[in-house]
Design a protein that fits this description.
The chain is α/β, with parallel strands linked by helices. It folds into 2 domains: 105 residues, Roll (Urease, subunit C, domain 1), CATH 2.30.40; 281 residues, Alpha-Beta Barrel (TIM Barrel), CATH 3.20.20.140. It contains 15 helices and 15 strands. The chain has an 8-stranded parallel sheet. Strands 1, 2, 3, 4, 5, 14 and 15 form a 7-stranded mixed sheet that branches. Strand 11, helix 9 and strand 12 form a beta-alpha-beta unit. Helix 4 crosses helix 5 and helix 6 runs parallel beside helix 7. The longest helix has 17 residues. Bound molecules: N-(iminomethyl)-L-glutamic acid and fe (iii) ion (FE).
Length: 398
């Protein structure tokens, strides 16, 4: 038994069985001042405020008045990639759009070429640098996508690397097959959609989820429908939708019972209506809005309509080269007008939901995994996104 005592603020408490929060509930979370928390076999067994009813032989962790919260859950990343796309950063500064860079053979295809030339071992090492960086910043659970392979051999290489990361790190890792990220080199559009469909059984040996970049200039509603139909009963969908246009991606995702629909920079009331009373978690990625200069999604309208929303980093070389979840929270507060608690719930419980792990992660709840962040003294949930660059983390407790 391990007991953390002298906790100034224990925040993110949820009753058992709450797997996500929505609407007005997203603006609330349970807190205790002057608290303690007990851990056994890596799980939260009890917590309370005041003097702890401590067993004598517990190993004690003095929190020195710091805050304890559940670790961040990042439900949408592309952190397995090779090399860098800093050359395109200069194109971007000179005024080329994401679509223009992609159309010139840069973008995702550039990463696919780099990945093709990189050995599996090297790809693992390069990716682990980013995974470690994320964990050092407080991420305890992450989803990682394939999608820079774009042919059967290289997609499987990526999925094996994700599996190896899963087996190595203390963080919870979920794997997503994103063969349909761009049209692989040497394929026609039609041939590549068929190739993705043909890859599904092998990918399903490794992956938990399937994703399609359903957007203007990438994969159509028809392609997405075919790919998700082929994956039915094998892989649960999580869709890239409505980043570049009102693409219909949300509706096709909901129709296929997607666990999440992600990006949502461009939505109308129709997307909100499509999401009502469904299991699908709308997920916003403000880091890519920031980096690409795209509109920030209308998360406030979603909350106003009674929906819950999640936030994730989208850490990738082309549209969001950062996995900093506190920066994601800050952007959500400053640019999307979320309150700090709404943003906090979006990067913990709701983002855990968006990767199917909210019964185990995302809140302070008896029985859940003790994957916790212990801060230095003086922090609270408002300061977290407000003072977004000041080091805050004293220790990640696993
Ligand atoms: O989520 N939009 C599609 N895919 C990624 C970008 C990938 C890349 O540019 O390498 C995203 O933004
Ligand atoms: Fe993405």
């Amino acid at each position: 038994m391990k007991v953390i005592y002298n906790i100034g603020l224990l925040a993110g408490i949820q009753p058992e069985g709450v797997l996500r929060v929505s609407g007005a509930d997203q603006a609330r979370t349970g807190v205790l001042e002057n608290a303690w928390l007990a851990i056994e076999d890596g799980r939260i067994v009890d917590f309370g405020s005041g003097v702890m009813p401590g067993p004598d032989r517990a190993s004690l962790i003095d929190a020195h008045g710091g805050m304890v919260i559940p670790g961040f859950c990042d439900s949408h990343t592309h952190v397995v990639y090779a090399g860098s796309r800093d050359g395109e950063f200069l194109d971007k500064i000179r005024g080329l759009s994401y679509e223009e860079i992609a159309a010139r053979g840069g973008g995702i295809l550039n990463s696919a070429d780099l990945l093709h030339r990189t050995s599996e071992e090297d790809l693992y090492e390069q990716s682990m640098v980013r995974v470690r960086e994320m964990m050092e910043k407080g991420t305890v659970a992450m989803e990682i996508k394939s999608g820079y392979g774009l042919n059967p051999a290289d997609e499987l290489k990526m999925l094996r690397v994700i599996k190896r990361i899963k087996e190595t790190v203390p963080a919870c890792v979920k794997s997503t097959f994103l063969g349909a990220h761009a049209i692989g080199r040497g394929y026609t559009h039609e041939d590549y959609v068929q190739a993705v469909i043909d890859m599904i059984p092998a990918a399903a040996e490794y992956a938990d989820f399937i994703d399609v970049f359903c957007d203007e200039g990438f994969f159509t509603i028809g392609d997405t429908d075919r790919i998700l139909s082929a994956a039915e009963h094998l892989l649960t969908p999580k869709i890239h939708a409505n980043e570049l246009a009102v693409s219909g991606g949300v509706q096709i995702g909901v129709q296929h019972k997607a666990l999440s629909v992600d990006h949502l920079e461009n939505t109308t009331q129709a997307e909100i209506e499509a999401l009502r009373d469904t299991w699908t978690m709308p997920t916003f990625l403000p880091g890519s809005s920031f980096f690409l200069g795209l509109p920030y999604g209308k998360a406030r309208d979603f909350l106003q309509a009674g929906l819950g929303i999640a936030l994730a980093s989208d850490y990738n070389p082309g549209s969001s080269p950062s996995g900093d979840m506190r920066f994601v929270m800050a952007l959500a507060c400053i640019k999307m007008k979320l309150t700090p608690i709404e943003a906090f719930n979006a990067v913990t419980l709701n983002s855990a939901y968006a990767m199917g792990i909210s019964s185990e992660y995302g809140s302070i709840t008896r029985g859940k995994r003790a994957a916790l962040l212990l801060t230095t003294p003086g922090w609270d949930l408002t300061k977290l996104p407000y003072q977004y660059q000041t080091p805050f983390l004293r220790e990640v407790i696993w």
